[in-house]
Description:
Layout: H1 2-24, H2 30-48, H3 52-65, H4 69-81, H5 85-97, H6 105-123, E1 128-134, E2 142-145, E3 148-149, E4 158-160, E5 164-172, E6 175-183, E7 188-194, H7 196-208, H8 215-259, H9 272-305, E8 328-335, E9 338-344
Parallel strand pairs: 1-7
Antiparallel strand pairs: 1-4, 2-3, 2-5, 5-6, 8-9
Helix pairs in contact: 1-2, 2-3, 3-4, 4-5, 4-6, 5-6, 8-9
Amino acid sequence: MAARGVVYLTLAAAVLLTAGRAAAQPSSDDPGRAEARKIGYAGVEAYQAGDFATAHDRLETAFQMLRVPSLGLWSARALTKLGKLVEGEARYLEVIRLPTSVGDEAIQEQARQDARNERAELARRIPSVLLRVEGAPAAEVAVTIDGAPLTGTAIGESHLVNPGRHRIEGVRGSARASADVVAAEGEQKSALLRFAGATADAVTPAADAGLIASPGAGSSKGGTMRTVGWAAVAAGGAGIVVGAVTGLVAISKKGSLDDAGCVSGSCPLGQRDAVDSYERMRLVSGVGLIAGVVLAGAGTYLLLTTPANDGAGAERAPVARRPRAAFSNLRLAVVPGGTMLSGEF
């Protein structure tokens, strides 16, 4: 009952002020003031019942009809209860600046003082977001929070927001950047708007130093080199298989020649074709094995030293200039009794 008495005491202020103004205003204003008083009563009753949405709607209407501190105070309280802390703080400030020379000045002055005290307490609960930008001049970026444009210098300053999730967007010409922020009461958060220019600027020094730079060029070159690497591994594997199979055939033919009486390279005349076949198998086996090992090794090297592409077509990270190939100036020669591989490693 005590709380309800306070409520109606404040409401009485609105009644008194309308009466005071009525004495100085034409009687034609009385119906409008009476209506504002009626709507204000309904708003306070909804507030006391916990129906803050209805309270806000009614008190907002009444305050716009009759802009006096007592009604504005209750309107600010309803806004705050709805989580609209920024709007509530602005309404408290509006109440503080309203004149009290209407109705009962003592009651209106008390409403203004209450607004000062409640605004100071509310200010500590309002979260804020510090805006930063990368990749674009701050002065050229237009910023919105939840679709509402920010005026003045938005970047590098903190902006008051209501508790909850907020969508922050920046526009510079045709380029856009966005960030989502969730702020609780009293929190100070930061939001970074990163434009594509930030990434481009970051890779420019790498290009000057001879590193892999342009995502498009690096991606294309890296993909080609990896394709060559896989082809070399496949060809090398095939060469090793051919060399191994022909080697086994050569061993089998060598056993047959031994059984036919071939000793120290001297064979009966009837075995000349078998000897030629054996020499061919031995040569093919040696070439296949050596070429297979070289190709497989070179392909493996390419696969290990060429960065793989990420899903977006850019290389995962700039890497240093590739060293000279580990195998260079390779030469494969056929010599009496087999094959020889030479070159620089």
